[in-house]
Amino acid sequence: MTDKNRPFGFEIDVEAGRLARFDHHYQRRLSDLRGVFTDRSAFERAIASGDPVVYEVYELYRPQVAGELLHGLSVVHPGQIGTEFYMTIGHFHAVRETAEVYYCLKGRGLMLMENEEGTWASEEFLPGRVVYVPPRWAHRSINLSLDQDLVTLFVYPGHAGHDYGTIEQRGFRKLVLRNNGSLSIVDNPAWAGANVER
Asked: Which domain holds residue 21?
């Protein structure tokens, strides 16, 4: 067994979308994303027809303390619910003043981001492209392909933690939609802060 108090390296099987060696692996099925997609009937139909895996994460264990860098692989599978692409739930960091870096290894996607002050942004994922998420920004990975996984390597501070609750309660301000083959980013009419913003 490798002594992880010493320097170490690891391999990524990019084609398979997984780490060659990992300590933790979890999957998020569509039923785990209740409330994330706006088309509720399309959501329920997709669950009834098999509750597909939307995304999964492979992690190498590191202590969750300042000074460490937590890292792993995120794989968002291709698919659509209504006009929305498969995506992650999204999160803030529990320690807001922590950033995260994503490096795209495979696929095509988008990182949708927003802060609590009301600003939003998006950055494209393409193989070889890095997306930097600054402190205080919630972020969500979206797979824009309908036939290929979106595979990204992520790295963030060990003490950052995750705050999924804020997103689960409020949602994201923007939706990324595919209509008749074209992509658009629009206001989310179901965003819980829509009546209090500005």
From this structure: 12-187
> What is the CATH classification number for the domain harbouring 84?
2.60.120.10
- The token duo for 9 is 């390296």
Give the residue-averaged pLDDT of 8-29: 95
Q: Please count the structural domains in the chain.
A: 1
Residue environment code for 33-70, b if the CB has 16+ CB neighbours within 10 A, otherwise e: beebbbeeeebeebbeeeeeebbbbbbbeeeeeeeeeb
For 68, phi then psi, to 5°, come to: -90, 160
Query: CA dist 99 to 88, 114, 138, 190, Å?
Result: 18, 13, 10, 27
What's 86's DSSP letter?
P
User: What SS3 class is residue 67?
Assistant: coil
Tens of pLDDT, residues 67-99: 999 999 999 999 999 999 999 999 999 999 999
Assigned token pair, 98: 């922590």
Give this prediction's pTM.
0.94
